[in-house]
Structure prediction request, 454 residues.
Amino acid sequence: MSSGKHVVVIPFPFGGQAWALTNLVLKLAPATPDVCFSFLNIAKSNSLIFPLPLRSKLPSNVRVYEVNDGLPDGHCGPMEHSGEHVELFLKVAPENFKAAVDAAERDVRKKEIFNSFLTDALVTFAGEMAEKVQVPWVALWVPTPYCLAAHVYIDVISELRRESSGGGTSTDNNDDNKSLGVIPGLSMMRISDLPKELIDDQDTSRSACMLREVGRVLPRGTAAVVMNSFAEFKMLLQVGCLAVSFPPLPLPSSSTSDTTGCLTWLDAREPRSVAYICFGTVAMPSPSELSAIGEALESTKTPFLWSIKESAMAFLPEGLQERTREYGKFVPWAPQAQVLSHLACGVYVTHCGYISMFESVVGGVPMVCKPFWADNMMNGRMIEEVWGIGVKVKDGTITKTGIEMALEVVLRGEDGKEMRKKAGELRERLVEAAGPNGIADADFKVLVKLISTS
Prediction:
């Protein structure tokens, strides 16, 4: 590789966050052959994203480094995916990653010039590191842009809430239904759509404090914020720095094989007839809600593919798996992007995670929404009221009757046909934005120039 630049890449290594940054780096690498990307990550996350057999196939200008995650030596237990682990990671990460940056620098110093940081936006300590060595910091914001707006303008939102309650701390429904239209990027939202911890527990919640810091440092510390979105959203948010689009098309997986037979099973189903149920890797409906979904699927005899953890199977109605064997399939994991793009998939019962939502849009599949936390409520509002491509469960709780009605509306009703049409139209706009002459392509070229010439 000829002499060029060196970019330090740091993902946020929990949940599915790291995949989006990986996707961006793998798109940037061939477009910037003279730039070396040092991907610094904890071992567990790296093992999922870059399994050892696949590392030799990475672009020659992408190098993978392991960083201490802060766990005690030899620890393996439930803390590994908990808020406690995230808190510990954030506490020790700045020093550990500084050492890793120094190691990466020693590896490339004779070939490349260290010129920028490219990190997940949640890795806010990168701002201080970039400022210290006087290089640009480019941050990727993975969730919805309107969720970032909530963090940037949290003080304004808090003041609006105080004013609506007469200066008190009332949580009256009228307060929660107050429009946030005066805040850039939140014209469609209401206070009730905001993450509860952001509003009710902003000084003590780990996640709220972390996100408050994101809202504080991103507008003033970054050279650019890469939005995991496209033009329709990017224009809604002004954060005081360059904002570029990176369209949320389906992300790569460490395995493309259909190990659970989902796609083969779908091949035998009628077009747009199957309900796909999945609540992501973290969200979990209550036992009664899981049972209600099972009862509704059985009573309506709706063909279904359900990605469900083995531990949650105990909460389903007894004998459900045997009784629904002819038209239903339970799996511990599914190739979600491929499932949602399969002709047989007719509706997606989802927690409204951002990437999941757009995988559904790419497949042209309407949704039944059960939001849980973070940006889920905002996404649910967009899906039901702004885009018109799905329905939320009544009163925020899954019931047998509610799921029966939702399946009837989306799979078999005229409203469902309209939702599917609108989902297809939104998909076309997304594909256009990501196409050769789309806004995302133009923005990507701006990002390539920034990284190549800084």
About this structure: The chain has a mean pLDDT of 83.
